[in-house]
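Predict both folds.
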Amino acid sequence: MTESVTAGQTSAGPTEWANLPDIAEQLGVSISKVHQMIRDGQLLAVRRDGVRLVPAELVANDIALKHLPGILTLLRDAGYNDEEAIKWLYEPDESLGGNAAKALGGDWAREVKRRAQALGF
């Protein structure tokens, strides 16, 4: 990624953000494809200072990117908006090795999915 943006966050949140052109370059797709991925729920983007940004950690790892659409669907089905989904993904949880976003990129991805499913009940 050529550039990431650091935004001030509370304790539960990404430490690095990437803008959409950087995401397109990293994934090797057009910017319109990135917009489509956001609309289709494959990526999560929020506005910070008027710019749409994606948590950099969610696209830095192919495993996390693979599991992200399913997690986002589960969170949206449980009534979470994008800001709430980010808060949930980055809520400190030592049982997952730090937080759910970090766990998505490793062996704990299924546990993250299980926990997201439980939110709907």
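Second protein follows, with its predicted structure tokens after the sequence.
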Amino acid sequence: MDYQEIAKESVGYLYKAHRSIRTTGLEVQLIALAELRTSQLNGCAYCCAYHANELREMGLAVALIDQLPGWRLATGFDLRQQLVLEWTEVVTTRPADFKSYYPLLLEHFTEKELAELTTSISLMNALNRLRMTLGNH
């Protein structure tokens, strides 16, 4: 189904929000990292390929992209990247203790950055689900 054409206006707003988040001041590479991890968690093959390629083009080391599924055991991710990956998993799976992550996150991100990051992850979850349920496979 060509959901992007069928629901052109509604889906267009989602993509407009996606583009807008990338102009907020939060490092675009961190946003793309969160988008790739979200897509991995959701199993969206199209989005995984798209965001992995995007990160390569942004200069993220291929070794890090390859290690992303096992990021907790990898040594190459810096602290902000690790926090983004952790928060991505929290937002996507929403464990009961999700608020316990706020203090550490707010030591390393402003409230605006955290809000934008959370919006990006939430939006990617929605876009993954649209692609996986209605997209052409």
